[in-house]
Amino acid sequence: MVIIIILDFTASCFQEVFIFLKKNCNDCNGTLTYCLKEQKIKKINTMKIVIKLGFAALLSMHFMTATAQNKNTDNDNSLLWEVSGNGLSKPSYITGTFHILCNKDFDIKPKIWNALNASENFVMEINYTDQNEMMAMQKMMAADKKISEQLTPAEATELNKTLADYGTNLKNVDGQSPQALYALVATKAIPCPANEVKMYEIELLKTALKNKKSVNGLEKVDDQIYAIGKAYNLKEVISQLKLGNEYAIAAQKMTEAFKNENLKNLDILIKDPKFMNKSQEKLVLTDRNKKWAEKMPEMMKNQSSFFAVGSGHLWGENGLINLLKAKGYTVKPVSNL
């Protein structure tokens, strides 16, 4: 589903990362501190906050909900999976995340913390401690061409009306990239103020850094930007913005399913094609999963690793669980640890 734009991502020092840095710079490494001090980030206007929060959240929901061909059974109701066998001397773990949640819904179960503590290497989709990645995230928000220059006057007027439902207008976002504009969709999925949210990976990262674990990423920011950009052009982004209220309803249901680790309900929710078609699923999920599955074996061989990725990357025929099983690993759900 298209409900989480990353990068990302998931994906620009995202506002949720900014919030984390402002509160925790003294506890983090020099790279994260650099992001604030060298870039002289003292004030961020409200719209940029909304867009950056939305970008990570949107990625989250994409990954939570996009893989429609789920073959898991009721016994697989877990967001934590152990990877062993195939020559590994120690098990590694994969956990599905929901990148951004309101404080009232946020909870990391003890088994997740125990798996992280048992691992030597913490791996996210993107390495937030990499200075180059943080710089790339910051650059991602700007566009070479204004949004208004890519639309007819009638289309621009219609978009302006749509943006009013998000508390902004075309003038405020005209210099942003389509990926940044798309992130506004996710603001419908975050039913709380920006100062009342938590980012799942950041909470895990704080503990990993505190315990002096190595930190790595499965891909680069540019990879995520490419995937989102190819999957959703400007016209498709505008179409998604018009579905804002439907995103809000779906997000509430997905949040509950995530909290309950209810994969059956997630499977039902992800099959709504209005949010993501097969071509978009391939770009945003399948292609990236296959690349990650090629990188993970070497990481697991060198160190016991804890992978934290959007939940939608795990399930289905082309999810990480099946891809790793196909490589000869034993991958099983963890109920308690």
UniProtKB/TrEMBL annotation:
Task: Report the membrane topology from the UniProt record.
Answer: Single-pass type I membrane protein
Keyword presence, Glycosyltransferase:
no
Q: Keywords, A to Z? A: Glycoprotein, Hydrolase, Membrane, Metal-binding, Metalloprotease, Protease, Signal, Transmembrane, Transmembrane helix
The membrane-spanning stretches of this chain are none
Grouped into one coarse class, the protein's main location is membrane
UniProt cross-references to Pfam families, sorted A to Z: TraB_PrgY_gumN
What cofactor does this chain's UniProt record say it requires?
Answer: Mn(2+); Co(2+)
One example GO MF annotation: metalloendopeptidase activity
Superkingdom of this entry's organism?
Bacteria
Name the record gives this protein: TraB/GumN family protein
Q: Which organism was this protein described from?
A: Chryseobacterium pennae
